[in-house]
Amino acid sequence: MRPSLQVLFLIPVLLVSTGKAAYAENNLRIEHLPRVVKQGDVCLIRALGPASLKSIYGEFRGERFPMAAGAENGIHEGFVGIDMSTRPATYEIRVVATGRDSRIYSSALSLKVEKVDFGIQKLSLPSSMVDLDAKTLARVDKEARQLKALFQAFRNERIWRGAFVRPVEGEISAAFGLSRIINGQHRSPHTGIDLRAKEGTPVLACNRGMVVLVDQLFFSGKSVILDHGWGLYSMYFHLSEALVKEGDRINTGAMLGRVGSTGRSTKPHLHWGIRINGARVDPLSLLRIGIHPILGERE
Fold first, then answer.
1. Is 299 inside any structural domain?
2. From CA 37, how far away is CA 112, in angstroms rounded?
3. Per-residue pLDDT of the chain (299 residues; tens, 9 = 90+)
4. Same structural domain for residues 133 and 217?
5. Domain coverage including residue 148
């Protein structure tokens, strides 16, 4: 699955018969939370549908994505990642399923995405962090290609379980989506959040996952990236040290490393980012969705 998809359903959505009105008597409903969906949001799709299905998948912009059974019979849920640059418009999400009687069921949801003014952040940094020589530019380009390839990989396994948690409890020093002007030059927008914390503060995994990168990168310094399955990744940057290795499977709240100020950073903090099938989303939006009471678990 390519990152252009920019959507991830972590638990499935509504099914309505496209044939002879099967299940019509169940008065099936579908909704999304939050009610107002904006650029950079993680959106919960929730529906009441048939409890027993043989197979199910979703479609968005002509691409398929996987789904799994909900926590309660008849309750189906899913997450959609709305990239920060998604054009404000109304989009269709469709779910298709096959019942145990081999009938095909389908339903569509219209999702309106609204524009966000993320704001501007002006920074002054040492010129060595901004005006890069040819050797450093080559390194930065190589690292960017490495990360792009990593996020294109799709693990057909849902490793995460339950609600997501904050990796540290610090205040936000730089919000998600800020347009950044560094030393008077326009740079890439801020694709995560920066959390203030003292040097050495433990950094915890936001959910269960597999460690797929532990490396020292130019911009993000000592970095750890977790693959939570089904295209969902979490990033932990500027660490003073990493306490895990690539290939480790870790649980929610496991200690990944310690807060530092490595890479392009002037003071200790944690940069925390989330990708959902390539969609750059606000980690706080994922947290708000994750604590919703209907998000149960069934192992």
1. no
2. 7
3. 444 444 444 444 333 333 333 433 334 467 778 888 899 998 877 766 666 767 667 777 776 666 665 556 666 666 788 999 999 999 998 777 777 778 777 788 888 999 999 888 776 767 777 777 899 999 999 999 999 999 988 888 889 888 899 999 989 998 898 877 777 777 778 889 999 999 999 999 999 999 999 999 999 999 999 999 888 999 999 999 999 999 999 999 999 999 999 998 889 999 999 998 888 999 999 888 755 444 445 44
4. yes
5. 120-288
Query: Do both 88 and 205 map to the same domain?
Result: no
What pTM was estimated for this model as a whole?
Answer: 0.82
Do 131 and 172 fall within a single domain?
yes
**Does one domain contain both 125 and 262?**
yes
Does residue 296 fall inside a structural domain? no
